[in-house]
Amino acid sequence: MSEVKIINAPAVPNMPWQEEPDTFRNAPVWRYSENPIIDRNPVEGVARIFNSAVMPYEDGFVGVFRGEQKNGIPMIYFGRSSDGIHWDFEHDKIRFVDEEGNEFMPLYAYDPRLVKVEDAYYVIWCQDFYGAAIGMARTKDFKTFTRIENPFIPFNRNAVLFPRKIGGNYVLLSRPSDSGHTPFGDIFLSQSPDMVYWGRHRHVMSRGSEWWESLKIGAGAAPIETTEGWLLFYHGVVNTCNGYVYSIGGALLDIDEPSKVLYRCENFLLTPEEWYEERGFVPNVTFPCATIHDSSTGRIALYYGAADSYVALAFTKADLIVDYIKKHSRVTDTDTEPGRR
What we know:
With 341 residues, the chain is mainly beta.
């Protein structure tokens, strides 16, 4: 086994963890035995929390959570935890403001990601911008959330920031889409010097030829920087006779030019198999949105939405998962080229 290190990331000795099983039947990713960690009706007025993002903060953990209100409109809620497993939520949704401090709420907001870049924390989500598009906000204290300009026109989803600048620019992954449930989709990359003006767009990955990602793909958790490249957990979708199935895949991107895919696992890393993944408001969904990872041990805790009804947790280690991705890699020309045409 290769010695893979997580780099340019802090040690998180208090991260949630459960030791791996003696053997793996599939990929070296194992579910938390007490899943789901967030059940239905977690907050008054909220039916379900799922597809949410968390990260270390101060002595514990914070998160931004997709809360499906009981009127059916999704909004983003804020939560804190001492252990990354048991969460306390604020009862009111996050109140976003504009640059002048005036309340500036989206019509709806869902599938948030949370990424720290330098001294600021960025929340990225999908919202209405005269069509499905990407919303963004910045905070430094998790008390004031200031919205910044939409990076792109509709239609787009699944936006994820890299946790540091590359070549002096912020770098964002996204999945251009249509106005509906998008029967297609590749991952693209965009760059910005200031988080306002975005360009230098590059193609990163196409939907795969394997059944589990044959319809569309989308970036999941913020990429993890390792000695082998950027480790990306993403979702892949297949359309079956009984509807969509969302699985979790893995890839390694070039450190300096992340539009180039170095390795891409042809096998899914996790697919709906447990009751909380197969049965829910939208069945057969495992949807990754965040990781907590410890640079000193290589431990990774992967948070994912399950069946659009719950939040669940799985674990892996950097060396185990990178070796598995490399061993089962199959890339195409559109993966490995720089993504310019």
